[in-house]
Amino acid sequence: MTKDINVSRRLVLASGAALGASALIPRAFAAEPLKVAGIHGSPVENAWNSVLHKALQDAAAEGKIEYAFSEGVAGTDYPRVMSEYAEQGVKLVIGETFPVEKQARTVAADYPETAFVMGSSGQFSGDNFGTFGTWNYDGAYLAGMLAGKMTKTNVVGSVGAIPIPEINLLINAFAAGVKAVNPEAKHLVGFIGTFFDPPKAREAGLAQIDAGADILFGERIGTADAAKERGILSIGSLIDYTPRYPETVFANALWNFRPILDAAIADAAAGNPVGKDYTAFGLMKEGGSDIAYTKGIAPSGAEAAMEAIRADIKSGAFSVPQDFSEPT
Known about the structure:
By secondary structure, the protein is α/β, with parallel strands linked by helices. Helices cover 38% and strands 19% of the residues.
């Protein structure tokens, strides 16, 4: 549901209590925090948005930025919300433009003094429109290596949102990890057609289980609910789902937005152009993504093989294949 900016915007500021003694520094000698806005197409509880939101909240708590945000912003409203934040004097806007690539660039061109750094399937443009991809595909590949050695039915499944390049990359990497250790395994793929609909993701997961899958890769929230319901194992994406599903989720392809955010904040604060691709800051070899897994669930040999590839990814000795095509 679309939320009006005046209703959904919430301001998150680092308070004097949170800052401790540093809050007592006279304002004349303290750097003004950068005004940053987050525009979230889904509720901030959604996994992808929650990663961005937490990084922005943490930066605000540290006094580096002044953070306001809007959530649940529909694609039809997105350009308007971008414009309103720019009109309010926000210096850096963080968000996503997957459904409104052309319109977002038009807005950015209208506000050259505002920096926009957005999750995008397109290229950066001009001096003030930067992009980043959600490339936690290294962790997905590693999780696939574990799943390929753990499946008993020789069928695994993936539930994704929409077949955009970033999601295709992630699911294809998982499938490649499975195939690397188990060439005979079958991989089922389902898309729910939206970025946030946990019941729909659950239904897609149940359908894959009915088709024989005994391990699910949940690119979307709700997939693990299907796995839990049927007593099989699942893999999470972006955040660590294991505490929420301790008996179900045994591995997670993690992504950390903070390195990307810090780079964007540094550029915007210095008045440098942000018209660049910030994706690389989120890669595993840069410390921006990783795998978290419960040891002892997969066979010891599978864990050792996965850890060897993990070390090679971090050192640059191995690169996970990049496949942006729609998985089938």
